[in-house]
Structures are given as structure tokens and as C-alpha cells.
Design brief:
Number of strands: 5
Strand content: 5-15%
Number of helices: 5
Strand order of the largest sheet: 4-1-5
Oligomer: single chain
Structural class: mainly alpha
CATH architecture of the largest domain: Up-down Bundle
């Protein structure tokens, strides 16, 4: 069936809650089907030898050409949707989510996606430095200045904005400024006690 692999690939991505592994084999298969369809179009045109006005020839060429276009649109939509998810993950969970292993999705990415994710992170970092603003922090101001947190994993010592220091030992609880701990909460080192 024409375009079956392309639509299945796109459907798999859109129905998945998480980012599935990059499927390079499926994309190669789709590109191979497109080449075969283009060869059919070429052979049909060559066989017609001037009788392109024939409804039979025109319909055959049109159907195969539309199948090539559909495959192309599905493949591009797959790639675009994956990049959108990578960007969304970077904004919502920080740069560590794109690393390989340890809860990151780096092992799910294709080589070009890894390059894209690294370059995107570099651009965000450069822009944040130039503007002097942490773009990853919460867009909405916190309702509380201080928050109670519990340490999930040993985190060493952190320095707070007011010049103090806090040692983060697993299981300990602390009452700290949101701005001092929001990155650690996002990384999973701390959890907010509600």
C-alpha cells in the first residue's frame, strides 16, 4: 500500500507520550519508496511517448506523484515534530534531559538531532549571557519567596544568593529561597514539600 510506512511512522510519534527512538531505517525505507515511485513516473512518461493527454497515463502519473508528495510531507512532519519535542524538553526540564542515560533522552536521538540539541542549548546559553537573564527559570513569578525542600540525592554544598551556604544531604529538609533551588528541583536533586 502506498505511503503506509510513512503514515505509520508519523502515527507512532504523535500517539506516543514520550519521545520514541529515532527511526532512521523507516526514513530510509520511505526514501526508497519515493525513489521507486519516481522511477514508475519516469517509466510511465517514457512509455507514453507523447500520449500524455491520455486519462490513463495522466491518472497513473498523478497518483504516483501524490504518493511521493505524501511520503515527503509525512517524513518532514515526523522530523519537525521530533525537533519540537526536543525543544520543549529543553525548555521544561533543562539541558540535562538531553543527555544519554540517567533519565535523559539523548539515546533516543538521531545524530542530526543530537547536533541540533547541542547547538540549541549553546544558543540559549549565549543569549542568556548576553541578555543577563536566566531564560529557563519560571516565566511566572513564584507566589512564595521561600520554599521547603527535601533532598532526594546528595547534592554537596550550595551557596545561596544572600551569601550563606547549605549542605544537601539525602533525606534532609531545608527552607530556602526559590531562586536558589529551582534548578535543583527541576534536576530532581530536591523535591518541594507542599
Amino acid at each position: 500500500m502506498l505511503c503506509a510506512r510513512a503514515t505509520a511512522l508519523l502515527r507512532e510519534l504523535t500517539t506516543s507520550r514520550h519521545l520514541p527512538p529515532f527511526d532512521a531505517d523507516a526514513l530510509r525505507s520511505i526514501a526508497g519508496e519515493m525513489r521507486e515511485l519516481l522511477e514508475i513516473i519516469l517509466s510511465t512518461i517514457q512509455a507514453a511517448a507523447g500520449d500524455l493527454a491520455s486519462p490513463r497515463v495522466a491518472a497513473g502519473v498523478l497518483v504516483h506523484h501524490r504518493a511521493v508528495q505524501r511520503n515527503k510531507r509525512c517524513a518532514l512532519a515526523y522530523l519537525h515534530a521530533r525537533l519540537d519535542r526536543i525543544v520543549a524538553l529543553r525548555w521544561s526540564a533543562g539541558g540535562d534531559v538531553l543527555e544519554v542515560g540517567a533519565g535523559g533522552v539523548g539515546d533516543q536521538l538521531g545524530p542530526a538531532e543530537v547536533t541540533f540539541a547541542r547547538r540549541h542549548a549553546e544558543l540559549l546559553g549565549t543569549y542568556a549571557e548576553e541578555v543577563g537573564l536566566d531564560l529557563i527559570s519560571e516565566a511566572v513569578p513564584p507566589s512564595e519567596v521561600y520554599v521547603e525542600v527535601r533532598v532526594k540525592h546528595d547534592g554537596g554544598m550550595i551557596l545561596t544568593e544572600d551569601g550563606g551556604a547549605c549542605v544537601l544531604r539525602k533525606g534532609s529538609a531545608h527552607f530556602l529561597r526559590v531562586s536558589d533551588v529551582e534548578g535543583l528541583i527541576r534536576q530532581g536533586t530536591l523535591e518541594q514539600v507542599v
